Protein backbone atom coordinates (compact mmCIF):
# COMPACT_ATOMS: atom_id res chain seq x y z
CA UNK A 1 0.00 0.00 0.00
CA UNK A 2 1.02 3.62 -0.38
CA UNK A 3 2.52 5.24 2.70
CA UNK A 4 0.00 6.78 5.10
CA UNK A 5 0.53 10.48 5.70
CA UNK A 6 2.29 10.70 9.05
CA UNK A 7 4.53 13.61 8.03
CA UNK A 8 7.66 14.34 6.02
CA UNK A 9 10.21 12.81 8.38
CA UNK A 10 8.46 9.45 8.36
CA UNK A 11 8.03 9.60 4.54
CA UNK A 12 11.79 10.20 4.05
CA UNK A 13 12.93 7.57 6.54
CA UNK A 14 10.48 4.94 5.26
CA UNK A 15 11.70 5.57 1.69
CA UNK A 16 15.29 5.42 2.97
CA UNK A 17 14.91 1.75 4.01
CA UNK A 18 12.08 0.44 1.84
CA UNK A 19 13.22 -3.24 1.68
CA UNK A 20 13.43 -3.37 5.50
CA UNK A 21 10.15 -1.49 5.83
CA UNK A 22 8.37 -3.98 3.59
CA UNK A 23 9.93 -6.94 5.40
CA UNK A 24 8.42 -5.46 8.59
CA UNK A 25 4.96 -4.45 7.36
CA UNK A 26 4.40 -7.48 5.08
CA UNK A 27 5.94 -10.10 7.38
CA UNK A 28 4.44 -13.63 7.46
CA UNK A 29 3.23 -12.92 11.04
CA UNK A 30 1.35 -9.86 9.76
CA UNK A 31 -0.16 -11.82 6.86
CA UNK A 32 -1.27 -14.49 9.35
CA UNK A 33 -2.97 -11.84 11.52
CA UNK A 34 -4.74 -10.56 8.41
CA UNK A 35 -6.01 -13.82 6.98
CA UNK A 36 -6.56 -15.44 10.38
CA UNK A 37 -4.11 -18.32 9.76
CA UNK A 38 -1.68 -17.25 12.52
CA UNK A 39 -1.72 -20.02 15.17
CA UNK A 40 -3.19 -18.84 18.48
CA UNK A 41 -0.08 -20.13 20.25
CA UNK A 42 2.16 -17.84 18.19
CA UNK A 43 -0.12 -14.88 18.87
CA UNK A 44 -0.05 -15.47 22.63
CA UNK A 45 3.70 -15.96 22.63
CA UNK A 46 3.98 -12.60 20.85
CA UNK A 47 1.51 -10.95 23.24
CA UNK A 48 3.34 -12.06 26.37
CA UNK A 49 6.66 -10.80 24.96
CA UNK A 50 4.95 -7.62 23.78
CA UNK A 51 3.76 -6.86 27.32
CA UNK A 52 7.38 -6.88 28.52
CA UNK A 53 8.33 -4.91 25.40
CA UNK A 54 5.78 -2.23 26.33
CA UNK A 55 7.23 -1.95 29.85
CA UNK A 56 10.58 -0.97 28.32
CA UNK A 57 9.00 1.20 25.62
CA UNK A 58 7.21 3.11 28.37
CA UNK A 59 10.65 3.75 29.89
CA UNK A 60 11.93 4.92 26.49
CA UNK A 61 9.00 7.34 25.97
CA UNK A 62 9.58 8.58 29.52
CA UNK A 63 13.16 9.33 28.49
CA UNK A 64 11.57 11.37 25.69
CA UNK A 65 10.05 13.62 28.35
CA UNK A 66 13.52 14.06 29.86
CA UNK A 67 15.13 14.83 26.48
CA UNK A 68 12.39 17.19 25.22
CA UNK A 69 13.26 20.80 24.42
CA UNK A 70 9.73 22.14 24.08
CA UNK A 71 6.52 21.71 26.01
CA UNK A 72 4.86 20.36 22.86
CA UNK A 73 7.44 17.54 22.64
CA UNK A 74 7.00 16.89 26.35
CA UNK A 75 3.20 16.69 26.04
CA UNK A 76 3.32 14.14 23.19
CA UNK A 77 5.82 11.95 25.05
CA UNK A 78 3.92 12.16 28.34
CA UNK A 79 0.62 11.31 26.58
CA UNK A 80 2.30 8.28 24.97
CA UNK A 81 3.55 7.03 28.34
CA UNK A 82 0.01 7.39 29.71
CA UNK A 83 -1.49 5.59 26.68
CA UNK A 84 1.01 2.77 27.07
CA UNK A 85 0.91 2.11 30.81
CA UNK A 86 -2.78 2.83 31.37
CA UNK A 87 -4.41 1.62 28.14
CA UNK A 88 -2.35 -0.38 25.65
CA UNK A 89 -0.91 -2.72 28.30
CA UNK A 90 -4.38 -3.27 29.76
CA UNK A 91 -5.49 -4.70 26.41
CA UNK A 92 -2.71 -7.27 26.61
CA UNK A 93 -3.70 -8.12 30.17
CA UNK A 94 -7.34 -8.62 29.14
CA UNK A 95 -6.57 -10.81 26.14
CA UNK A 96 -4.12 -12.93 28.12
CA UNK A 97 -6.47 -13.24 31.14
CA UNK A 98 -9.08 -14.77 28.81
CA UNK A 99 -6.48 -17.43 27.97
CA UNK A 100 -5.58 -18.09 31.62
CA UNK A 101 -2.36 -16.02 31.70
CA UNK A 102 -2.21 -13.71 34.75
CA UNK A 103 -0.75 -10.18 34.87
CA UNK A 104 1.97 -11.35 37.25
CA UNK A 105 2.94 -14.04 34.74
CA UNK A 106 3.16 -11.33 32.09
CA UNK A 107 5.35 -9.07 34.20
CA UNK A 108 7.60 -11.99 35.13
CA UNK A 109 7.88 -13.39 31.58
CA UNK A 110 11.41 -14.21 30.56
CA UNK A 111 12.49 -11.89 27.74
CA UNK A 112 13.48 -13.42 24.44
CA UNK A 113 16.78 -12.12 23.01
CA UNK A 114 15.00 -10.32 20.13
CA UNK A 115 12.97 -8.44 22.72
CA UNK A 116 16.03 -7.46 24.74
CA UNK A 117 17.89 -6.38 21.59
CA UNK A 118 15.11 -4.10 20.37
CA UNK A 119 14.09 -2.40 23.61
CA UNK A 120 17.62 -1.85 24.88
CA UNK A 121 18.75 -0.58 21.48
CA UNK A 122 16.06 2.10 21.60
CA UNK A 123 16.83 3.05 25.20
CA UNK A 124 20.53 3.31 24.43
CA UNK A 125 19.86 5.46 21.34
CA UNK A 126 18.11 7.89 23.66
CA UNK A 127 20.69 7.72 26.43
CA UNK A 128 23.63 8.20 24.08
CA UNK A 129 22.04 10.73 21.75
CA UNK A 130 19.52 13.55 21.86
CA UNK A 131 15.75 13.72 21.37
CA UNK A 132 16.03 13.06 17.60
CA UNK A 133 18.17 9.94 18.07
CA UNK A 134 15.54 8.60 20.45
CA UNK A 135 12.61 9.51 18.20
CA UNK A 136 14.24 7.99 15.08
CA UNK A 137 14.53 4.70 17.00
CA UNK A 138 10.95 4.93 18.36
CA UNK A 139 9.30 5.95 15.07
CA UNK A 140 9.07 2.53 13.32
CA UNK A 141 6.96 1.06 16.12
CA UNK A 142 4.39 3.85 16.11
CA UNK A 143 4.06 4.36 12.35
CA UNK A 144 4.57 0.72 11.35
CA UNK A 145 1.61 -0.49 13.43
CA UNK A 146 -0.49 2.34 12.00
CA UNK A 147 0.36 1.30 8.45
CA UNK A 148 -0.16 -2.42 9.21
CA UNK A 149 -3.53 -1.69 10.84
CA UNK A 150 -4.77 0.24 7.79
CA UNK A 151 -3.41 -2.35 5.38
CA UNK A 152 -5.04 -5.32 7.17
CA UNK A 153 -8.35 -3.52 7.77
CA UNK A 154 -8.87 -3.28 3.99
CA UNK A 155 -9.39 -7.04 3.76
CA UNK A 156 -10.52 -8.13 7.26
CA UNK A 157 -14.09 -8.95 8.32
CA UNK A 158 -15.43 -8.02 11.76
CA UNK A 159 -15.59 -11.71 12.80
CA UNK A 160 -12.01 -12.55 11.71
CA UNK A 161 -9.89 -14.15 14.49
CA UNK A 162 -7.58 -11.15 14.92
CA UNK A 163 -10.08 -8.41 14.05
CA UNK A 164 -9.73 -6.94 17.57
CA UNK A 165 -5.97 -6.50 17.21
CA UNK A 166 -6.31 -5.10 13.69
CA UNK A 167 -9.05 -2.63 14.66
CA UNK A 168 -7.01 -1.28 17.58
CA UNK A 169 -4.46 0.04 15.09
CA UNK A 170 -6.78 0.80 12.14
CA UNK A 171 -9.04 2.81 14.47
CA UNK A 172 -9.22 6.58 13.81
CA UNK A 173 -8.12 7.11 17.41
CA UNK A 174 -4.81 5.31 16.84
CA UNK A 175 -4.44 6.88 13.38
CA UNK A 176 -4.71 10.30 14.98
CA UNK A 177 -1.97 9.31 17.46
CA UNK A 178 0.26 8.57 14.44
CA UNK A 179 -0.60 11.93 12.88
CA UNK A 180 0.13 13.78 16.15
CA UNK A 181 3.46 12.01 16.68
CA UNK A 182 4.34 12.63 13.00
CA UNK A 183 3.62 16.34 13.33
CA UNK A 184 5.61 16.61 16.54
CA UNK A 185 8.51 14.74 14.90
CA UNK A 186 8.51 17.08 11.87
CA UNK A 187 8.61 20.05 14.23
CA UNK A 188 11.40 18.52 16.33
CA UNK A 189 13.46 17.87 13.18
CA UNK A 190 12.90 21.39 11.77
CA UNK A 191 13.83 22.94 15.10
CA UNK A 192 17.16 21.08 15.29
CA UNK A 193 18.13 20.48 11.64
CA UNK A 194 16.47 23.37 9.77
CA UNK A 195 14.38 23.39 6.59
CA UNK A 196 16.38 20.83 4.62
CA UNK A 197 16.95 18.07 7.19
CA UNK A 198 18.03 15.34 4.75
CA UNK A 199 20.99 17.57 3.76
CA UNK A 200 22.09 17.74 7.42
CA UNK A 201 25.28 15.95 8.52
CA UNK A 202 23.17 14.13 11.11
CA UNK A 203 20.67 12.66 8.70
CA UNK A 204 22.60 9.45 7.89
CA UNK A 205 22.83 8.55 11.59
CA UNK A 206 19.14 9.22 12.16
CA UNK A 207 18.20 7.14 9.12
CA UNK A 208 20.44 4.36 10.43
CA UNK A 209 18.61 4.37 13.77
CA UNK A 210 15.23 4.19 12.01
CA UNK A 211 16.46 1.35 9.75
CA UNK A 212 17.94 -0.62 12.65
CA UNK A 213 14.73 -0.32 14.68
CA UNK A 214 12.76 -1.46 11.60
CA UNK A 215 15.03 -4.50 11.23
CA UNK A 216 14.51 -5.24 14.93
CA UNK A 217 10.72 -5.17 14.35
CA UNK A 218 11.24 -7.87 11.69
CA UNK A 219 13.16 -9.96 14.21
CA UNK A 220 10.39 -9.44 16.75
CA UNK A 221 7.84 -10.95 14.34
CA UNK A 222 10.30 -13.81 13.62
CA UNK A 223 10.43 -14.44 17.37
CA UNK A 224 6.61 -14.52 17.51
CA UNK A 225 6.47 -17.21 14.85
CA UNK A 226 9.01 -19.27 16.76
CA UNK A 227 6.40 -19.67 19.53
CA UNK A 228 4.38 -22.14 17.44
C1 LIG B 1 7.00 -5.04 18.87
C2 LIG B 1 6.01 -3.93 18.86
N1 LIG B 1 6.19 -2.89 18.02
C3 LIG B 1 5.32 -1.88 18.02
C4 LIG B 1 4.23 -1.87 18.85
C5 LIG B 1 3.23 -0.76 18.85
N2 LIG B 1 3.56 0.27 19.79
C6 LIG B 1 4.52 0.18 20.70
S1 LIG B 1 4.73 1.62 21.58
C7 LIG B 1 3.52 2.36 20.72
C8 LIG B 1 3.22 3.81 20.93
C9 LIG B 1 2.07 4.11 21.79
O1 LIG B 1 0.86 3.78 21.26
C10 LIG B 1 2.96 1.48 19.81
C11 LIG B 1 1.85 1.80 18.92
C12 LIG B 1 4.07 -2.96 19.72
N3 LIG B 1 3.03 -3.01 20.58
N4 LIG B 1 4.97 -3.97 19.70
Automatic annotation (TrEMBL):
<comment type="similarity">
    <text>Belongs to the TenA family.</text>
</comment>
<protein>
    <recommendedName>
        <fullName>Aminopyrimidine aminohydrolase</fullName>
        <ecNumber>3.5.99.2</ecNumber>
    </recommendedName>
</protein>
<keyword id="KW-0784">Thiamine biosynthesis</keyword>
<comment type="function">
    <text>Catalyzes an amino-pyrimidine hydrolysis reaction at the C5' of the pyrimidine moiety of thiamine compounds, a reaction that is part of a thiamine salvage pathway.</text>
</comment>
<keyword id="KW-0378">Hydrolase</keyword>
<dbReference type="Pfam" id="PF03070">
    <property type="entry name" value="TENA_THI-4"/>
</dbReference>
<dbReference type="InterPro" id="IPR016084">
    <property type="entry name" value="Haem_Oase-like_multi-hlx"/>
</dbReference>
<comment type="pathway">
    <text>Cofactor biosynthesis; thiamine diphosphate biosynthesis.</text>
</comment>
<dbReference type="InterPro" id="IPR050967">
    <property type="entry name" value="Thiamine_Salvage_TenA"/>
</dbReference>
<dbReference type="InterPro" id="IPR004305">
    <property type="entry name" value="Thiaminase-2/PQQC"/>
</dbReference>
<feature type="domain" description="Thiaminase-2/PQQC">
    <location>
        <begin position="19"/>
        <end position="226"/>
    </location>
</feature>
<dbReference type="InterPro" id="IPR027574">
    <property type="entry name" value="Thiaminase_II"/>
</dbReference>
Amino acid sequence: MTAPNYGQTFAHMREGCLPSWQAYTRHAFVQGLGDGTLPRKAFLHYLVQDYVFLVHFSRAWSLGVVKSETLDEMKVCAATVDALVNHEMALHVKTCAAEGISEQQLFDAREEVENIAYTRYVLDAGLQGDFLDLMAALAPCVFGYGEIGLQLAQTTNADAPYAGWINTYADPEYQSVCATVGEMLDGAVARRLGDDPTASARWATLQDRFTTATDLEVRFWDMGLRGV
